Amino acid sequence: MSHSHSHEGAGAGHSHDPVAAAADHGHTHEILDGPGSYMGREMPIIEGRNWDERAYTVGIGGPVGSGKTALMLALCLALREKYNLAAVTNDIFTREDAEFLTREKALPASRIRAIETGGCP
């Protein structure tokens, strides 16, 4: 289904058809009727990869007041000299966690980002 309408003030013609949208980023996304299979996936190429420069993501979750931000601060302080770190905080409405990490100098301010989701994460 192709049509024109405004997205945040910019009029643009485009398609909401997933097959047509695939051309926008070079590949398609298969629509599955059931769970996928790990064994059916195309495996990444690992030959020649430099594992010394691998990036890691650590996700910290838990209820309000459980110490997630305090743990982030402790991890940043403990690991910042050895590793190239960045911190991304996720909150529904505020930037308080990122502001706390910046104020406590967990990392340089340019390495801390706050994401306000505006709804349940």
The assigned structural class equals alpha+beta
User: Could you tell me the number of beta strands?
Assistant: 4
Biggest sheet statistics: 2 strands, antiparallel
Mean pLDDT, as a whole number?
81
Total domain count? 2
Describe this structure in words.
With 121 residues, this protein is an alpha+beta fold. The chain has 2 domains: 9-40, no CATH class; 57-116, no CATH class. 23% of the residues lie in helices and 18% in strands. The protein has helices at 18-25, 68-79, 96-103, and strands spanning 2-7, 10-15, 87-91, 112-116. The strands form 2 sheets. It has a two-stranded antiparallel ribbon with strand order 1-2. Strands 3-4 form a two-stranded parallel sheet. Strand 3, helix 3 (96-103) and strand 4 form a beta-alpha-beta unit. The longest helix has 12 residues, at 68-79.
Gist of the model:
This protein is of the alpha+beta class. The protein contains 3 helices and 4 strands. It has helices at 18-25, 68-79, 96-103, and strands at residues 2-7, 10-15, 87-91, 112-116.
Structural key phrases:
single chain, 121 residues, alpha+beta, 2 domains, two-stranded antiparallel ribbon, extended
What topology emerges from the helices and strands here?
Elements: E1 2-7, E2 10-15, H1 18-25, H2 68-79, E3 87-91, H3 96-103, E4 112-116
Parallel strand pairs: 3-4
Antiparallel strand pairs: 1-2
